[in-house]
Amino acid sequence: MYTESILIVDDEAEIRSAMSHALRRCGYSVESAASGLEALEKIKNEYFGLVITDVKMPEMSGIEVLSNIKKISDDIQVIIITGYGTIDNAVEAMREGASDYITKPFSFEILETAVKRVCSVLNNRRQCKELSYRTNRFSDYKKIITQDATLMKILDRAKNVAPTKSSILILGESGTGKELLANYIHQNSGRAGEPYIAVNCAALPENLAESELFGHEKGAFTGAANRKLGKLEIARQGTIVLDEIGTMSMPLQAKLLRALQEREIDRVGGNRPIPIDARIIAISNIDLKKAVKDGTFREDLFYRINVIPFTLPPLRERKSDIVLLAKHFVQKYASLRHRNVKDIADDTISILMGLEWKGNVREMENVIERSIILGSGEILLPEHLIIEEPDPLKREAISINAGTSVKDMERQLICRTLKEVNDNRTHAARLLGISIRTLRNKLSEYRLEQ
Fold first, then answer.
1. Given the DSSP bridges, would you call strands 215-216 and 228-229 parallel, antiparallel or unpaired?
2. 236 and 255: one domain?
3. Which domain holds residue 413?
4. pLDDT in tens, 112-152
5. pTM above 0.85, yes or no
6. Are 341 and 371 in contact (CB under 8 A)?
């Protein structure tokens, strides 16, 4: 059940205190503000589903507070408290978008009933948004394009564990689709209507990483002019993805471990814990077990995030997906880049099948996009492919003794090239600068046919 965050706005401290106590007793998360200006500042920096405000306040009236809240977010519900005999204020408030009103004096039972009614509306809206979000994003599931049996089993398992609260660790080489799997898990969970926040731990400056994840209070350090919510807090009951978690500093790992254990965080400069309920999905392209042995990653944090592990296979182990992905990317970038490419030549497919794809799906996508942009015609031909070849300086040199014949040199060169491209003849011919027919003739001449 979602614990609603409520903000009470009233210039009288005793009323704020009494209402806060009553609503906390009902299980709500409650904060208060002594003025409309203070309330608006809090709303800009924190999430509140419901605001309860008095109408009559100095500096800014409750109606003005309501009007400003609706400018910030139409999703925030507002209950107006109006004095006896000022029903006109209540009518005006309802016209401005208030969800309900309470007339003074009122009992706590009346307050609780009104709050429960509005929170019920909030929950219904949240569920409707979740359904709409799932429907609108259904096509996004297609981003995980595969017919590979291993990956299909991974997706089935991911769908089964998605509704749980358990932390998940996704491992795999760069470009294998780890964040796509994280998003797939989020979309198939009960959290799909809540925020999905991805954080690249490697891109966080060390001096700001703690503030980015956990937030900070106003004045916590030089330059902290306002309170800032951290990503873990902003995620609320959604999903937070910690990409490249293996790059996180040891002090930050310790603070994250505590957050996962206690399900609460401390903002930098804060003096009270903030409860969190986001699902953690950690992603890494390095061997975290080795990092634990090397002393660069905490063993206790590893076990905390490794509750449900997934390891994505590299593209070179998903041969059946190469043609599928290539055709998908051709269709995608022909449309995006306004090109007339409609299909891929068989020789082009042969080259793609023979590549090692160290950058996996991301590398393939880049190759296809570049080829679509710089190529021409309706068919993607081998000459359209622009592939970054390995650094020649890093290749093993071919040793040629004095007196070696040109034919022997040519034979060695063909053998080495075929080895480089995993015996893909179409690709080898392209690298050698000869036609596939010429290569076949050479192989026959030098009796290299298998």
1. antiparallel
2. yes
3. 392-445
4. 999 998 888 777 765 554 444 343 433 344 468 888 888 98
5. no
6. no
Regarding whether 371 and 409 lie in a shared domain, the answer is: no
What CATH number does the domain containing 25 carry?
A: 3.40.50.2300
- DSSP line for 70-88: HHH-TTSEEEEEE-TT-HH
Q: What is the DSSP string of 186-236?
A: HHTSTTTTS-EEEEEGGGS-TTTHHHHHHEE-TTSSTT--S-EE-HHHHTT
How many whole angstroms from its chain centre is CA 10? 39
Note the pLDDT tens digit of each residue in 58-96: 889 989 999 888 887 777 899 998 875 556 667 777 878
Asked if residue 120 belongs to a domain, the reply is: yes
Instruction: Please check whether residues 377 and 398 belong to one and the same domain.
Output: no
Structural domain count, the chain:
4
54 in the same domain as 151: no
Give me the CATH number covering residue 215.
3.40.50.300
Is residue 206 within 8 A of residue 247, CB to CB? The reply is: no
Residues 12-51 pLDDT 10s:
999 999 999 999 998 888 999 999 999 998 887 777 889 9
Is residue 38 domain-shared with residue 83, that is, in the same domain?
A: yes
CA 201/CA 253 separation, integer angstroms? 11
Q: Are residues 112 and 153 part of one domain?
A: no
Which tens digits make up the pLDDT trace of 317-359? Answer: 998 899 899 999 999 999 888 888 989 988 888 888 888 899 9
Cα(273)–Cα(306) distance, integer angstroms: 25
Do residues 260 and 299 touch, judged by C-beta distance below 8 A? Answer: no
Helix axes 319-336, 346-354, angle to 10 degrees: 120
C-alpha distances (whole Å) from 311 to each of 153, 281, 282, 286, 306 are: 11, 13, 12, 11, 11
